[in-house]
Amino acid sequence: MKRSLSAAALLLLLSCSREPQVTPENLTSIEYGTLLGFTGWVTTVTVYPQKQVLKPSYQSTKTCEIPISPAEWTELARLVDETALRKVKVDEERVCPDAGAAWITARSSSGEVKAVWGPCTGGDPTAIQPLISALSKRMSDQQATCK
Q1: How many CA atoms lie within 13 A of 38 on its CB side?
Q2: For the chain, which domains are there?
Q3: Which residues of 92-120 are buried (b: 16+ CB within 10 A; e: fewer)?
Q4: Average pLDDT of 34-43?
Q5: What mean pLDDT is reported for the chain?
Q6: Do 102 and 81 touch, CB atoms closer than 8 A?
Q7: 58: helix, coil or strand?
């Protein structure tokens, strides 16, 4: 009996210490953001299963929301690679105030994975380039219509 309690306690401890799993199946949102150096201009686009929300700047309360189709969500979710996101060095403390940075945060029902890159972070986003391209295009397209 003591052995089964010890084994159960060990399993519980190990399950609590694991990093969150982010998969296309449990994904709840994907955020892409850019910071433009000294200007402090931060733009984010967050994509959810049924909608996309653009926040043109943290200096404003304005947001623009558009619906997305299940097929669009599935296509975007398919590009999320947790292993590749984790390999991008996350060093938010080393973001240069004059150079800017970008990030992607993939959120799931069990947690989130964040990748930050820019000239001073040392992060290499090459492995997540397809996801960056897709999110950047979504941001750009929505900025054109968000008035």
Answers
A1: 1
A2: 20-145 (3.30.1560)
A3: eeebeeeebbbbbbbbbeeeebebbbbeb
A4: 76
A5: 81
A6: no
A7: coil
